Amino acid sequence: MVAIIDYDAGNIKSVENAVRFLGHEVTVTSKAEEILSADHIILPGVGAFGDAMKRLRQAGLEETIRQAVDREIPFLGICLGLQLIFEESEESPGVKGLCLLPGKIRRIPEGGGRKVPQIGWNDLSFPRSSRLFAGIPEGSYVYFVHSYYLEAGDPADVAARTEYGVSIDAAVEHGRLFACQFHPEKSERIGMQILENFLKLS
Which of 19, 55, 106, 195 is deepest in the core (most CB within 10 A)? Predict the structure, then answer.
C-alpha cells in the first residue's frame, strides 16, 4: 500500500491517479497508523512553505514523518514536499522545516529574461548514480512549477540538478528518503518511470 500524506496542500489527486495508473494500491490519509503501516509514503504539495509546515504540525504529522523516515519506509517528497524536508525557506523566514536533511530553500533569482515562477519543462543532469533515476537518460526533461529551489547542505544527497539562471538541486536521495522539486506525475513517460523506480523499492 502507498500512503499519500493529506495535509490540505493540494496536488494530491494527480499523484494518486499516477500511482493507481502504475498498478499500486493507494490511500490518501492523515492518520499516523495508516502512514506508518504503508510500504511507501509520498508527501506531495503546492503552496507556501510556512503555511504547509503549520498544517503539518497542527495535524501532528511532523512526528509521524520523522518516525516513517527513522523506520526507513521509502519516502518521496514532491515539489513543496521536497522543500519541507529541509531546514528553512526564504519564502517563510523564521519557520523551521522538518530538518530531515541539511539545506536551505532559496528564491529563484529574477533577470536574464527568466520568468519566476519557473513553469515548464527542463532537463536533468545526474551528478551520481541513483535508484530513483535508474534507466533515465541524462538530459531527460521533466515538468517544474516553482519559485523557490533547494540549495542542499550536503552535495552527496543530490541525485539530479537542473539549470534555471542558477544551479538547482532538483532531486535528492539519502538512504530511503527521496525528493523531487519537479512533478514526476506530470512528466509523462519519464515521470512515470521515476515514480515506478521509487515504488519498486523495498
Answer: 195
